[in-house]
Specification:
It is found in: Peroxisome. This is 3-hydroxyacyl-CoA dehydrogenase. Monomer. Residues 310-487 form the 3-hydroxyacyl-CoA dehydrogenase NAD binding domain. By secondary structure, the chain is an alpha/beta fold. It is built from 31 helices and 19 strands. The strands form four sheets. The chain has an eight-stranded mixed beta sheet with strand order 12-11-10-13-14-15-16-17. Helix 5 (146-154) crosses helix 6. The longest helix has 21 residues, at 620-640. Residues 718-722 have low confidence and may be disordered. It binds nicotinamide-adenine-dinucleotide (NAD). The site of nicotinamide-adenine-dinucleotide (NAD) has 21 residues, from helix 13. Nicotinamide-adenine-dinucleotide is lined by residues 314-320, 337-339, 343, 394-397, 405, 422-424, 446, 448.
Length: 724
């Protein structure tokens, strides 16, 4: 791989072209900063240089600061690994340079990359460049002066929106809002940038040092109002993370005391934020996601993914229609098969509604929605199956039906066709029992709603062929999902890890804790739904089926609760009929339902676990731990049993499939943050008091004994996992 480098070429026109190179996105490695400085210094010294153009090699300006450095800081705690860029390079060397610097931008300028462009005196870009400061999504703030210069170029509100939401914009939009000085065609880029630089040098164009500008900020009173609203918004959208409010504070510093003062505060705050648990969690998820595309015995075999152009989706219910939506949106033709015309129409209508939903939210143009619908075809038989490259079965959860379907499909589909099932609970070997091509059977486990949720668990059996796994991974990426390869065991990875979630919550409710309080503790922690609201949403039929399924497979750790049965007996079915733990009324938010209390009391009487018949006294933190530590423990079993390839795969999967807060790094990483020894000791205590449901797993026990984080891959266990 090419080494990171900075080169300089001086043209006869007196323009020095400085090029950043570090493929693939010219990330700014630490070693590049002294080299950048020395090239700029040389350009300033040389008499044959009048102006400088800064660019990136290979059609990309720069993807930003090399975040491998964050990873190193998190492992060593050594913040001095951060280079002094904000003052030394972005101010002294670039902004205050004696000769003008113009950024010539192609492809992308993100994070530190965009900040280098902001420190230049003008910015010229080609069309469709991606521009943004997404640092907050990694738990930090822009660190090379971005918090100060972006508001001075595009105005306070727009800058705050771009930073707080980590929003990227195109160069065309950038030109409209003042971030980009001109958008030109790729073959003109260098010519225009060079001329622009010379025009500044010769005073034909203004020489703008952004940090000194105030014209886009407005009056102090106006700025204060914008900052106040931004703070309120930040508290609402990100109540558990520090970087949003810190970013606003830093911007405010620059507005009150001037850009340079803002830069100094930015640098200080950046160094504080980079070592927070939030940054550690977000960086962990970022790197863990990258690892997912490495699947032993699949991606290391030199196989090439085969193209999947047409897919048959069987079943147009909740899941099938969502899956079909995701496929047609990525230009993959779909045949949707149903049992009768009425259900088929219903399925197609749901797909249309899914697309309309995207259009209404501005995520899709009407044109694209119509184009997607044109490649969808409904069917009541197998006549359109002869040229499909993949089948995704999403019919009701019924073993004989699925077996029958796969034995039929095998006969009507081409020999290369991938045979995928969306089952959430059934053993894939059982699904494929009546099928000869067992090596083509694979799980494509989408999460509901399938056109929205990003996780795709790819379930492989011992017999699934590596080619089929690779093909499905590729399709997953094409339809913008994040594929995580998992093993074929009840619940796979995410549902399995989360099966103790509602059980533990019911246990607490039977111990006398208010379910609404439990939900509140969990949502304050950052999960979007507490366990009771989640059950209300999925309906008690599903809750009972899931509870039964897991109880039969893992009878050693099941808790008894009569609560759901009692609710059903009392005519409640959660959101389905508007009454559950909460009352659901059209147009208003779910409200806790006080009339659940007698049902709850009856459940407590039957369960009979309250000490001396009295509700336990418990803190919010203890509630959180009693609900989530069993989930961490089950997550440990998921790793122990080799259901995921690496522990960090489960972290990504819980973030994407269960909306576990990414700023907590995913399930196991959070277990590491709260200390595995504490998780272990708590579970052990509860298991002695309440039984085996809480019994610490071997993996947890062993990791604590060896002092190895739960979320870290362990080479010793890799061999046992390779059976995946
Ligand atoms: N609901 C979820 O959250 C979820 C999540 C992941 C996976 N799953 C799995 O996805 C599958 C489907 O679940 P769902 O929630 O979409 O169910 P659903 O009841 O909403 O839809 C099933 C559809 O399959 C159709 N169908 C039945 N037999 C058929 C046949 N022979 N040919 C064609 N169509 C047929 C039915 O008419 C119905 O429209 C199940 O295996 C389920 O375990 C569900």
């Amino acid at each position: 791989m090419a080494e990171p480098s900075i080169t300089m070429e001086v043209g006869n026109d007196g323009v020095a072209l400085i090029t950043m190179s570090n493929p693939p996105v010219n990330a700014l490695a630490r070693t590049m900063f002294p080299a950048l400085k020395s090239k700029f210094d040389e350009a300033m010294r040389r008499n044959d240089v009048k102006a400088v153009v800064l660019t990136g090699k290979g059609g990309r300006f720069s993807g930003g600061f090399d975040i491998n450095v964050f990873d190193k800081i998190h492992k060593t705690g050594d913040v001095s690994l951060l280079p002094d860029v904000s003052v030394e390079i972005a101010v002294n060397t670039m902004e205050d340079a004696k000769k003008p610097i113009v950024a010539a931008i192609e492809g992308l300028a993100l994070g530190g990359g965009l900040e280098m462009a902001l420190a230049s005196h003008a910015r010229i870009a080609v069309p469709k460049v991606q521009l943004g400061l997404p640092e907050l999504s990694l738990g930090v703030i822009p660190g090379f002066g971005g918090t100060q210069r972006l508001p001075r170029l595009v105005g306070l509100s727009k800058a705050i929106e771009m930073m707080l939401l980590s929003k990227t914009i195109t160069s065309e939009e950038g030109e409209k809002i003042g971030l980009i000085d001109a958008v030109v065609s790729p073959n003109e880029l260098m010519k225009v940038a060079r001329k622009w630089a010379l025009d500044i040098a010769d005073r034909r164009k203004p020489w703008i040092r952004t940090l000194h500008r105030t014209d886009r900020i407005g009056s102090l009173a106006e700025a204060r109002l914008v900052l106040k609203l931004a703070r309120e918004q930040a508290k609402k959208i990100a109540p558990n993370t520090p970087q949003q409010l810190a970013c606003i504070d830093v911007i405010e510093e620059g507005i009150i005391h001037g850009g340079y003062s803002g830069i100094l505060k930015e640098d200080k705050v950046f160094r504080e934020l980079v070592v927070t648990d939030t940054a550690k969690g977000l960086v962990h998820v970022f790197f863990s996601q990258r690892l997912l595309s490495k699947v032993p015995n699949v991606t290391d075999r030199g196989l090439k993914p085969r193209q999947v152009k047409k897919v048959a989706v069987i079943g147009g219910g909740l899941m099938g229609s969502g899956i079909a939506t995701a496929l047609i949106l990525s230009n993959i033709h779909v045949v949707l098969k149903e049992i009768n015309a009425e259900y088929l129409q219903k399925g197609i209508k749901t797909i249309e509604a899914n697309l309309r939903g995207f259009v209404v939210k501005g995520k899709l143009t009407q044109d694209k929605a119509e184009k997607a619908l044109r490649i969808l075809k409904g069917s009541l038989d197998y006549s359109d199956f002869k040229d499909v490259d993949m089948v995704v079965e999403a019919v009701v959860e019924n073993v004989p039906l699925k077996q029958k379907l796969f034995s039929e499909i095998e006969k009507v589909c081409p020999a290369h066709c991938i045979l995928a099932t969306n089952t959430s609970t059934i053993d894939l070997n059982l699904v494929g029992e009546k099928t000869r091509s067992i090596d083509r059977i694979i799980g494509a486990h989408f999460f509901s709603p399938a056109h929205v949720m990003p996780l795709l668990e790819i379930v492989r059996t011992e017999r699934t062929s590596p080619q089929v796994i690779l093909d499905l991974m590729t399709v997953g990426k094409i339809i913008k999902k994040v594929p995580v390869v998992v093993g074929n065991r009840t619940g796979f990875a995410v549902n399995r890890a989360f099966f103790p979630y509602s059980q533990a919550a019911h246990f607490l409710a039977n111990l006398g804790v208010d379910p609404i309080r439990i939900d509140r503790v969990i949502t304050n922690f950052g999960l979007p739904l507490g366990p009771f609201q989640l059950q209300d949403l999925s309906g008690y039929g599903v809750a009972t089926a899931v509870w039964k399924e897991f109880s039969s497979v893992f009878p050693d750790r099941v808790l008894f609760s009569p609560l759901i049965d009692l609710l059903r007996k009392n005519g409640r079915d959660g959101k389905n009929n508007g009454r559950g733990f909460y009352i659901y009324e059209k147009g208003s938010r779910p409200k806790p339902d006080p009339s659940v209390l007698p049902i709850l009391e009856e459940s407590r009487r039957i369960a009979n676990i309250m000490p001396n018949g009295k509700p336990i006294s418990i803190s919010d933190q203890q509630i959180l731990e009693m609900v989530l530590f069993p989930v961490v423990n089950e997550g440990c079993r998921v790793v122990e049993e080799g259901i995921v390839i690496r522990p960090s795969d489960l972290d990504v999967a819980t973030v994407l499939g269960m909306s576990f807060p990414s700023y907590r790094g995913g399930l196991l990483f959070w277990g590491d943050l709260v200390e595995p020894k504490h998780v272990y000791a708590s579970l052990k205590k509860w298991s002695e008091q309440y039984g085996d449901f809480f019994k610490p797993s071997k993996y947890l026990e062993e990791r604590v004994a060896r002092g190895i984080p739960l979320s870290e891959a362990d080479s010793e266990n890799a061999a046992s996992r390779s059976r995946l």
